[in-house]
Amino acid sequence: MNASQINVASDRFCSLEQVDAVDMTLEDQEDACRYARREKHNFSREQRKLIQVMNVKRKRDFLCLENVNGEMVNILEGLELHTDVFNAVEQQKIVDKVCELQEKARKGELKRGFTPKGKGRSAIQFGCCFNYRTSKAGTPAGILRHETVEPLPALFKVIIRRLVEWHVLPPTCVPDCCVVNIYDEGDCIPPHVDNHDFLRPFCTVSFLSECNILFGSNLKLEENGEYSGGSYSLPLPVGSVLVLNGNGANVAKHCVPEVPTKRISITFRKMNESKRPIWFTPEPDLQWIQPLQVELESSSSSDHVY
Fold first, then answer.
1. The dihedral formed by the CA atoms of 55, 60, 64 and 69, expressed in degrees to the nearest 10
2. Which residue pairs from 4-9 have beta carbons closer than 8 angstroms and sit at least 24 positions apart in sequence?
3. Largest CA distance in the chain
4. Distance from C-alpha of 257 to C-alpha of 49, rounded to nearest angstrom
5. 71, 149, 243, 244: which could form a disulfide with 112 (CB 3.0–4.6 Å)?
6. CA-angle at 196, arms to 108 and 120, nearest 5°
7. Contact status, residue 12 vs residue 54, Cβ threshold 8 Å
C-alpha cells in the first residue's frame, strides 16, 4: 500500500471502528457490526497495523519560553505527546499485568519493588536498579551497577517493540529498562530532571486515569506543599505516551502533582552503555527493531505559552 492508499484505508477502517448507532434499531446495529467485522477481514494484518500507526495522534510543537541563564529558551523543545497508541483492551491487559507484579512486590518476590514514605508512589524497577537521590550511605543518584534486579517482563518488551515500530521512539534509543509507578489518590512525584545515566529520549506511558504533568526550569516544591515555577501544565490522557528529549528532558524540571485518583505509569529508558550493571546482557528480542515504513503527517496544532 502506498501513502494515498493507506490514507483511504485508514478513513474506511475508522468508519468501521465507529459504527453510528444514532437512529438505528438494535437489529440495524447488529447488522452494521457484522458488516464492519466482515470488512475488517478485507485488510491484511500488516495493513491493519499500518492503519493503526497512521491513526496515532502526534503533537510535537510545544512551546513555552523562559529566561534561562539570560536567554529566552523554549523549555519544551523535544517534547512529544502520542495518543491512541494503546486501545482499551490492550490497556486493561497491561494494567492487569502491573497489578500482578504489584502483588508479587508486596510478597517480597521482586528484588526492586518499594513504596516511599509520605506522598510518594509505589515503584517497581526492571532491567536495572537505580537511586533517585544520594542515599544515606552516600551512594550517588543513578544506576547501581552491582545490584541485581528482574529483567523486563515479556509484555513490556512487546510494548517497547510497538513504541519503536509505531514511530514513537527512535530505533537508535530502544529502551532496555523501565520503572512502573503506581499512584494512589494523593500520591505525587517531586520536581526533577531524569538522571543522565539514562539516554535521551525516554518516555512515559499513562494508564487508568488522566493527570497533569508540570514543567518549568525553576519548578520547585514549597514548604507549604504547593508548587512554584511551573510554567506549563500538560494533561496526560489514558493510553498516551509522553516522549521527553532535548530541553524538555534536560532544561525543564518536571513533576506530577498529587493525583486525584489511582494512576499507573511506566517509564521506559535506555541506559548509557558505560553505566549498565556489570551483569547486564542485552535482550535478544529487542535488537534491530525498525519503524514500520509509513509516511506520517507533521504535527500542525499549536500550544504555545510565552
1. 150
2. 6/47, 6/50, 6/51, 6/54, 6/294, 6/295, 7/54, 9/43, 9/47, 9/51
3. 69
4. 36
5. 149
6. 40
7. no
